[in-house]
Amino acid sequence: MFYYDTNMEDYFENALFGTPFTAAVIVAAGSSQRMGGEDKQFIELCGKPVLARSMAAFQRCPIIEEIVVVTKPSSVEAVRKMAEKYGIDKLKAVVEGGENRAASVRNGVAAVSAAAEFVAIHDGARPLVTPKDITRCADDAFRCGGAVLAVPVTDTVKYGRKNGFVEYTPAREKLFAAQTPQIFDLEIYRSAMSRKAIRWIRAFMRRTSRIKANTISLRFRSTTTHGSFPTGRTTAGFLRTTAAGYF
Description:
Elements: E1 2-3, H1 8-17, E2 22-28, E3 44-45, E4 48-49, H2 50-59, E5 64-71, H3 76-85, E6 91-96, H4 101-110, E7 118-123, H5 131-144, E8 146-152, E9 159-160, E10 166-168, E11 176-185, H6 186-194, H7 198-205, E12 210-211, E13 216-217, E14 219-222, H8 233-242
Parallel strand pairs: 1-14, 2-5, 2-7, 5-6, 8-14
Antiparallel strand pairs: 3-4, 7-11, 8-11, 9-10, 12-13
């Protein structure tokens, strides 16, 4: 089921009774291989590093209580200084990433406060996410146990066979490109982790639409804003130019 409009009753209820303690885990520990070794997290976007813009979105979001950033060991101190420079006072910790994204997320989740009830997992290279979209996604997660920000697909997508022939064309109005944040009830997340469901974890990190270990469906919160930063050196300059009209 897809929701496009904000449910104001939920916002008034949250305002009266409080919202669950929500921590953000921003993952920025990639190897930058597709960028030719240049870490896109530190590339300036209209005068401000990409990662700083991602952190700032969660800093400005009222439902986010704290921020944990996961980065490469060589970048830990640089991220701390970046947060200080740009006034990210919700930063709780900067931790080292793991051997892959799933391991990096686990390291980040392990660093959130014991009081945290929900976690918002976000890619550091998605600087265009807005506090409003984070809030709307979180609102759905509070009601359903999990939610992911998604963008309606505008391209025509083909489902192909291994032999290279098209099998069918799925209805475009039913297709959504998953973005971040992905927001989950921490109890559900930790329960799945404790079962050591490695195969499930890998699928989960690839934007699954269901927490399989607990059979809890996720809400898709539609947005018109692409939060991603294109990878590849040829696209970096293009985004620097086009983003000038966004910020």
